[in-house]
């Protein structure tokens, strides 16, 4: 431990003790020290919303963010990935996570595009010069048009789906749920294993100039979603 | 246009600096109190028009998204209960969060005040040998004036949120907690980008127009090189989940994801009240926050991370839990309800006073209803600026209705007015003496209202006054009345009272 670190941790210890003492003084009026009996929470966790067509709603809400959505059968996914890359304007190359479906990678290469596998990890500079990225997903949320990534092997690390300008994302119809609470429950095991999450609702956007939504700032400016009717 | 743009301060006044010098040193210290500052702000016609357009847009968007949500009231109630639980048992959840974070390889630090929090950030930067950091929009770091502290320490802090970039490059101060450049229109943004970007990195394209997509693209190009080169990032956090040791950042542009993913070191400065007990609680707040803040079903990006992940993102992470007055808020049984705040700004967007005054007049990084309820509690009611804040309110209560965590703003504001009055009384008359003027006024009011005959006598007098005075009353040079009328226009009393009108126009018993 360096002298600076020792000094820092001594300061932290003193600050910590004082903050906790202040909190305990400030909450001395609260006699029931059991959070659950002192403050009950009347909410049923993990619930969904009644909707007629969950996948159809998901598709519509994703389109509302001005993303492109196509629906395909299981047998046509590899072809749809290639078409998606071309539709978004990728001409030369795409990044792919190491765990992506091998058939999709084969189809990308067969179509004449370079598939840059993130193993070993591509440098930031290489990612910045890569046109697109293709990934799978963990979950889709119909009510909000959101895709959730848990960054496991077929989705890749976070930078992969961030730095390239186009994201082609494959979501299975069976992964789509009605509302946020169900999605939270689906991805919870991944979080407990230490995986990060990224929730994606449309392409990157900003409302910072006159509060009008402008699509495309730092994240992928084009989002192309392939919904696979796998059921 | 010229005079309207006068607040875009040019250059750094000849001082050598790493980053653009903010107006007034970036702080709100030494500013005039609201009632004085607002007079200048109300003169800025372009700003007032920008504000009206922006707040009207956001109010309508929010209302639409809330109306789509079938269980909105239930979600609000759940969020209120969850945040109450956290405040009331803050020590328990902070200990749990500290344990979970530490288990995930995060260095946890504690800061009693803003100065201490700033020092921790600077010490980490120095230990890593970096002379610049990229920043995710964080009002907490504005509360502590972190950027200016780092500048003094020879470390450049680059804001990467588009609005924060506009504010930083404009030598300006934020005027809103979600959209800090709400007071700027596209023409002003273009002028700022053209003038300033070239001094701090990649210039704006010379032919950039006022079109927001082109301006956003200029920001993308300008910041990309900073993202790729940065070794350290500084963030706040929207939520800290105590059980899983996760931090949550809710954002739109992807600048947050860049900062959370590309650098080697990440430092997150977090107010101690930002905790949620459990990962499960996220479902409530992700239903609530985007619709309340930007009027979207969901904002483009949410990041959730639990400490260090092998091969993904920063391998060194620090979380600074900061008090900076929050335990004083907690100690006030009425005021503590404000600690539920999730910084969505729906109260600000709905506030008629904010819409007209703008965010700079308040003298705090937190403007509007949340600002006047929180700031005097965080900083105390010693300074005239803080004492004036609870009065920057018409008590209309619109904020109470929209708040996703049901903060009773007007109750807290009245409570704070009482605290201010107590403090002023103690200053003027000593701790145990009454203010005689106010006491006599109240005695008179008691006499007038205590008996119908007394009330009628007074009305004869006001009718007379109405006949003499023909125009609305403006400022008049009479003690006490002058102070009252300084901020108010008073209509001339009517020449007839309701009681006499009733007697003339209605029969008994009708």
List the helices and strands and how they pair.
The complex is a heterodimer of chains A (231) and B (510).
Chain A: H1 3-26, H2 35-38, H3 54-64, E1 68-73, H4 77-87, E2 93-96, H5 102-110, E3 114-117, H6 124-128, E4 132-136, E5 139-141, E6 146-149, E7 166-172, E8 176-177, H7 180-192, E9 197-200, E10 205-206, E11 214-215, E12 222-229
Parallel strand pairs in A: 1-12, 2-3, 4-7, 5-8, 7-12
Antiparallel strand pairs in A: 5-6, 6-9, 10-11
Helix pairs in contact in A: 4-5
Chain B: H1 34-42, H2 45-68, H3 72-88, H4 90-103, E1 106-111, H5 114-128, E2 132-135, H6 139-143, H7 146-152, E3 156-159, H8 162-169, H9 186-200, H10 212-229, E4 232-235, E5 239-241, E6 246-251, H11 255-261, E7 265-271, E8 275-276, H12 282-293, E9 301-305, E10 316-322, H13 326-330, H14 346-350, H15 352-357, H16 368-379, H17 384-388, H18 398-402, H19 409-429, H20 436-449, H21 452-468, H22 481-485, H23 498-505
Parallel strand pairs in B: 1-10, 2-3, 2-4, 4-7, 5-8, 7-10
Antiparallel strand pairs in B: 5-6, 6-9
